[in-house]
Amino acid sequence: NSALNDELAKLDPQSATYAADCQALKDEAAATVADLKRVESETHAWIDSNAGKATATVNDVEVIALIDKLEKERCLLKDEFVSLISSRSGDISEHLFEKARNAAKRYYGNHVYIRGLIEFTNYCKNDCWYCGIRKNNAEASRYRLTEDQILQSCETGYGLGFRTFVLQGGEDPFYTDEKIINIVKRIKASYPDCAVTLSIGEKSRESYQAYFDAGADRYLLRHETADPEHYAMLHPGEMSLENRKRCLKDLKEIGYQVGSGFMVGSPFQTAGHIAEDLLYLHELQPHMIGIGPFVPHHCTRFIDFPSGTAELTVFLIGVLRLMFPSALIPSTTALGTIDPKGRELGVFAGANVVMPNLSPVDVRKKYMLYDNKICTGDEAAECRFCMQKRIESIGYEIAVTRGDFVPMNG
Ligand code: SAH
Q1: DSSP secondary structure string, 78-124?
Q2: pTM of structure
Q3: Ligand 1 centroid vs 230 CA: distance in angstroms?
């Protein structure tokens, strides 16, 4: 017996080593699968982005024809979107932008609407792999604004001419439905002439209904990518495109003005994915569409991925404007982050909304979704007037109104 015990005692550490070896092999295999996936998607990306190139210059006429078709029919087939994206050039973009600007002018004249953005919490229960405030980023220094601080930001914003307040945050369970409802009610009671927009992620239909009944007017929830496999490359397994779409459907049915959108140049994104995003948006028919370049954050696995480009983002703003002539399309902070004139270029390509920051300055740097985010040191008033100068410098005007969605006429 004791000989057996000795033998077992010898085997025990060995089996532990085997178990560790097995785990190491499993990890290696998983890493290899991930690597293969990445290579596969990079190959697709390469094929997509080169698909149209050989014919691009000879076929400028065809690409112009696609833009004209888009203007008339408000949508293209998937392959046509892919050729449009892959064959774009400076001249083609100019043609697109002129049409896009005219479309925006038909509905909104030379007005650009301002939304006061209040980033009220950077706590989040999700772990979106691209996002700087994801729950597992231990380096993020977390904050929450009190109800009074939020109301104070609205007061400052109202004085500065904001008639829409956008409450954005991570998915923070601290703000129960009851708290959100209370905040919405307080803002609507103090500023009945203002719109309240929520951007607080995925909730149940009942919660969305309750916020709406409390007075919330609009909801922003980007679908991020309309391709389920791509979605799974950007998010952990417990999140799904299906639920994101369920949320957007519920929000629309409840009666919100709904905003969706995606990041441009997100890791592994191909022209095919973007075409799917555009087709999904066509199906959803949102009132607002927000797109901005992906920008890496140093505390995420995508630290070494390149940013999306301002050039492609602006091109897609033009495409979206032709698809949705009367939509509210922001020229985003991320666009301003990767190009100092990004937001002006966005408006020039058909965007008609900007969202200066109203959050108290002491928390600005903490709402760091991506690296180098701009406007993190300025007071609300500075942001507001800096934006006005920028908009006026390109011949547009800031509108001091709610800036609601105008339905399309024909
Ligand atoms: N929790 C809310 C708000 C998210 S933050 C929600 O889920 O809707 C708002 C948007 O910032 C996101 O929808 C995403 O598209 C964008 N974003 C996050 N990380 C980013 C990054 N690294 N680069 C560019 N945009 C990013």
Answers
A1: HHHHHHHHHT--HHHHHHHHHHHHHHHHHHHTTEEEE-EEEEEE---
A2: 0.88
A3: 16
